[in-house]
Amino acid sequence: MSFQAEMRRLRELDWRELNIRESGSWPWSLQLACCVLACCLIFAGLYWYLASPRVAELHQVRAEEERLLRDYRSRAAQAARLPDMLEQMTVLESRMDDLTAMLPSGAEIPSLIDSISEIAIDQQLSIDFIRLRSTVGHDFYIERPFDIQVEGEYHHIAAFLAGVAALPRIVTQHDFTLAPVEGGERLRLSMLARTYSYHPSAAEAEGGS
């Protein structure tokens, strides 16, 4: 059948009277078009039913892959810095040990107070009192405050403060009050001093780890 005859049959076809049961008598071009349409619908249905979930799963796997790659790169960068970090940790631990050695234990507090008294005597100061206060506990250390009151000449008091600051144990000085003593050129120094001890629980935690 020629193309012109086929086109004439399509033009003369009454589309309203088409019956699917008589599709065998339809023009071959119409049958071909219907087959192509049916195949497209079948392939679309198969894609939606079979391939679409796989595509969503593929997107999820790709996202997971990107996350794992980022994690890998981050860990690789950390691993590359590991030698430097270990060296820095060793330095910090050494500094921590040095600082911890400068903190007196509770049993060493009387000896520390004796050292402060000796500095005052060496600087020709009279000691009114050196009086311990209640300790204050913190997470990693114990604060041990004590009040100091001494009398003497100005330059002797200055030398006393320098001597306390130079002690091998850490002693911080606070709340200075310097007032003249009646009837002379001597001065009275009142201040709050603090020393610190490493918290026993922190030391036990480090020993357990």
CATH architecture of the largest domain: 2-Layer Sandwich
CATH topology call of the largest domain: Alpha-Beta Plaits
Proportion of residues in helical segments: 55-70%
Overall mean pLDDT stands at 80
State the major sheet.
Answer: 5 strands, antiparallel
Low-confidence stretches: 202-209
Write the element-wise H/E pattern from the N-terminal end onward: HHHEEEHEEH
Our Rg estimate from Cα atoms comes to: 46 Å
What is the beta-strand fraction?
15-25%
Count of beta strands: 5
Report the total helices. 5
CATH superfamily of the largest domain: Ribosomal protein S6/Translation elongation factor EF1B
Approximate shape: rod-shaped
Structural class, by secondary structure, is: alpha+beta
Number of domains: 2
First and last CA, distance: 94 Å
CATH class of the largest domain: Alpha Beta
How would you describe the overall organization of this protein?
This protein folds into two domains: 1-80, no CATH class; 108-198, Ribosomal protein S6/Translation elongation factor EF1B (Alpha-Beta Plaits, 2-Layer Sandwich). Helices cover 57% and strands 21% of the residues. The chain has helices at 3-12, 28-101, 109-122, 154-165, 200-208; strands spanning 126-132, 136-137, 141-152, 171-180, 187-198. The longest helix is centred in the N-terminal third of the chain and has 74 residues, at 28-101. It is rod-shaped, with a radius of gyration of 46 Å.
Short recap of the structure:
This protein has 209 residues and is an alpha+beta fold. The chain has helices at residues 3-12, 28-101, 109-122, 154-165, 200-208; strands at 126-132, 136-137, 141-152, 171-180, 187-198.
